[in-house]
Specification:
- The chain is α/β, with parallel strands linked by helices and about 220 residues long.
- It has one domain: 3-Layer(aba) Sandwich (Oxidized Rhodanese, domain 1).
- Helix content is about 25%, strand content about 15%.
- Strand 1 and strand 2 form a beta hairpin.
- The longest helix is centred in the first third of the chain and has 13 residues.
């Protein structure tokens, strides 16, 4: 199959990314990691930390006191067997996916009104409302998601999760219930806990660390 030609925007971005390789960054992600290159909506994106020492967190995530409920502090462990991970682990999964590992999927569980303000490059948006029957999710659409996006097989009316993808889910942060809802819904459907990873810090921690965001 012949690959589709790159758009002009993609070409410019690729040239920019290549040119940036030669310059060492003052603000690295970790001691041995400067950046991670991913693809978002078909365009190359470099995830790195903001290099401006005066940069401050997005004001959307600067509020400390949101009404609870619904914005209640989440536990460190969301469910038995589901691993809670941090930024470096998220970046590793993003790198795996960018390098062609189809067994990994990074999911922004927020509703579109939140996502349009910025998300993690390389993620896809599957709002919690599209999986939760209590929020009006269509069972047929849920079945399609399981099979087409999560690689779950339906065998004679039973779900087979043996080849299910590892899902890395996030939302707004420690006070957000959208990715926890997705996780609990998936567990109720039979999804293996070991193949669910929860980035508890979400967008608030991501923005706090000055990591790249795309709209």
């Amino acid at each position: 199959m012949i690959a589709a030609p790159m758009t002009r925007t993609a070409q410019v971005l690729l040239i920019l990314l290549v040119s940036m390789r030669a310059a060492a960054l003052d603000v690295k992600i970790s001691n041995d990691l400067e950046y991670v290159d991913v693809v978002h909506n078909g365009e190359p994106v470099r995830i790195m930390r903001n290099q401006d020492p005066r940069h401050t967190i997005n004001e959307r995530y600067a509020f400390t006191s949101r009404n609870c409920p619904p914005f209640c502090i989440q536990p460190a462990v969301i469910a038995p067997g589901v691993e809670t991970i941090g930024e470096l682990e998220v970046l590793q999964y993003l790198k795996q996916a960018a390098e062609g590992d189809a067994s990994v999927l990074i999911i922004d569980s927020r509703t579109p009104d939140w996502v349009e303000n910025g998300t993690i490059p390389g993620s896809i948006n599957i709002p919690w409302t599209t999986l939760d029957a209590g929020a009006g999710a269509d069972p047929f659409q849920v079945a399609d998601l399981l099979q087409q996006r999560f690689n779950v097989k339906n065998r004679e009316g039973l779900w087979d999760f043996s080849d299910a993808r590892t899902l890395v889910l996030f939302c707004n942060g420690n006070w957000c219930g959208q990715s926890p809802t997705n996780i609990h819904t998936l567990l109720a459907l039979g999804y293996p806990p070991a193949r669910l990873k929860w980035y508890r810090g979400g967008m608030q921690n991501w923005e706090m660390l000055g990591l790249t965001v795309v709209k």
